[in-house]
Amino acid sequence: KAGVTQTPRYLIKTRGQQVTLSCSPISGHRSVSWYQQTPGQGLQFLFEYFSETQRNKGNFPGRFSGRQFSNSRSEMNVSTLELGDSALYLCASGQGLNTGELFFGEGSRLTVL
Amino acid sequence: TQLLEQSPQFLSIQEGENLTVYCNSSSVFSSLQWYRQEPGEGPVLLVTVVTGGEVKKLKRLTFQFGDARKDSSLHITAAQPGDTGLYLCVGQNFVFGPGTRLSVLP
User: Fold this and answer.
1) Looking at residue A1, what is its pLDDT?
2) Do B88 and A43 touch (CB under 8 A)?
3) How many C-beta atoms surround the C-beta of residue B13 within 10 A?
């Protein structure tokens, strides 16, 4: 079956702009979680959505937000971009809420200039 | 706040050597997972350990969960270039260790 699909794979933005990233989970998976990966901070949890509701949240500012649609597809949005937001953004899908194996996409690499 | 530490941070070895990487915490975890991330890809699950003292083997990889469920180790026997990647330990509630970046040279 198809894996987790993230779009776009690469994008370049300038400071102050906003960005929306998309994640399509594995069919049948209801949980989607988002992560930021940087060389300095490693992989950090942003939030988890399950059945269209945010269920868990990491320690990121309110500029980072997300949503999940009825078909389990999820989007995350970062507003007022800062240079430090440059990172690989990964999403993962899972069958249950905060449990079990995470299936990761290949990520969206964001560069903020 | 639960934290996971991993050591070493970087490891470069020759093909055929053995190695062990460690994942430690001051907190008790109900389970720990190990993932491997190869360049340009997302992490892929290797194993989940849930019982203190548990040992799991996956071909040349051996995973151990500490008796107190505060630490775990990953031992690779006769490393191969295909083992190259970032090894991440992950606890419940989305707690990620910083990773061990392994490079196996042919």
Assistant:
1) 58
2) yes
3) 16
Check whether B102 has a pLDDT greater than 70: yes
Residue A65 DSSP one-character state:
E
Provide the shortest C-alpha distance from residue B39 to chain A (in Å): 10
Residue of chain B whose alpha carbon sits nearest to that of A34: B94
Over the stretch B13-23, which tens digit does the pLDDT of each residue have?
A: 999 999 999 99
Closest Cα partner for A100 from A20, A4, A33? A33
Alpha-carbon distance of B31 to A93, in angstroms, equals: 19
Q: How many CA atoms, within 13 angstroms, populate the side-chain half-sphere of residue A107?
A: 21
**A5 at the B interface (CB within 8 A)?**
no
DSSP codes joined into one string, B22-33: EEE-SS--S-EE
Token readout for A98 is 């905060």
> What residues of chain B lie within 8 A of the CB of A105, using their CB?
42
Q: What is the tens place of the pLDDT at every residue in A43-60?
A: 999 999 999 999 999 999
Residue B78 CA neighbour count, 13 Å, CB half: 2
Could you tell me if A36 lies within 8 Å of chain B, comparing CB atoms? no
**Radius of gyration over alpha carbons of chain A, in Å?**
13
Rounded CA gap, B35 and B43, in Å?
A: 6
**How many Cβ atoms are within 10 Å of A71's Cβ, its own excluded?**
10
Interfacial B residues in 6-35 facing A (CB < 8 Å) = 33, 35
